[in-house]
């Protein structure tokens, strides 16, 4: 008899949380900075993205996903790439 409880969940169940995201339908440029963006423009864009995240019903799942895959770009789960990087620390390479 096959034990299905040890199988991974179906793909749609792993990602269907995104359908509930507050950012769904928002301009993705709000969450990812353009090349060369600095200073006040950067801070204002990032703050606007974080305001959307603040009310998101799946914010924790989004943040957990971004941390698990070490997402290098954008605002995910209310944190910027620098904030996520500070939580995770440096990437270590085994065997080197």
From TrEMBL:
Keyword terms of this UniProt record: 4Fe-4S, Cytoplasm, Disulfide bond, DNA-binding, Iron, Iron-sulfur, Metal-binding, Transcription, Transcription regulation
Which post-translational modifications are recorded for this protein?
Answer: The Fe-S cluster can be nitrosylated by nitric oxide (NO).
Family matches, as InterPro entries:
4FE4S_WBL, Whib
Q: Where is the 4Fe-4S Wbl-type domain?
A: 22-86
Q: What is its main location?
A: cytoplasm
Q: Which domain of life is it from?
A: Bacteria
Which residues are listed for [4Fe-4S] cluster binding in this entry? 23, 53, 56, 62
- Note on how the cofactor is bound: Binds 1 [4Fe-4S] cluster per subunit. Following nitrosylation of the [4Fe-4S] cluster binds 1 [4Fe-8(NO)] cluster per subunit.
Keyword Ribosomal protein (UniProt): no
> What's the cofactor?
[4Fe-4S] cluster
Q: Would the keyword Transcription regulation turn up in this protein's UniProt record?
A: yes
- Tell me the compartments it is located in: Cytoplasm
Q: What does this protein do?
A: Acts as a transcriptional regulator. Probably redox-responsive. The apo- but not holo-form probably binds DNA.
Give the protein family: Belongs to the WhiB family.
**Name of the protein described by the UniProt record:** Transcriptional regulator WhiB
Q: Which gene encodes it?
A: whiB
